[in-house]
Amino acid sequence: MSKQELEVIGQGADGCCDGLASAPLDDERAAQLAKVFKALGDPIRLRLLSMIASREGGEVCVCEMTPAFDLSQPTISHHLKLLRQAGLIDCERRGTWVYYWVLPGVLDQLAAFLTTPQTAGATA
Question: pLDDT digit string (tens) for 55-86?
């Protein structure tokens, strides 16, 4: 699989931890984050990411994910490819099967981006 489109979020010069409320997004950062959130906006991809992230040991074989869905293996592979292109996961082929894992720190970076500082007058 090609890694040419794999871009890990938060690894650029614009800073990894700038939150949504810290400053308005520039066009490039907005486009980058939109790609990530678009990938997460699909229920199948969100479930796949959850299956991978929650797996003990940190990685899962595509052969273990496919039976959880009423979709063909090529369709599952397409969804996994979109998650890879968004910079959320990576993979490695081992023999016949491909194993996937969440890229280190990516979910923490997304959470940090979405976290806004609490103000003294804010109520829950």
Answer: 998 899 999 999 999 999 999 999 999 999 99
**pTM attached to this predicted model:** 0.76
Burial class (CB in 10 A: 0-12, 13-18, 19+), 3: exposed
End-to-end CA gap in the chain: 46
d(CA 5, CA 18): 23
In a domain, 6, yes or no: no
Our count of domains for the chain comes to 1
Residue 87 lies in a domain: yes
Q: Which domain holds residue 59?
A: 28-114
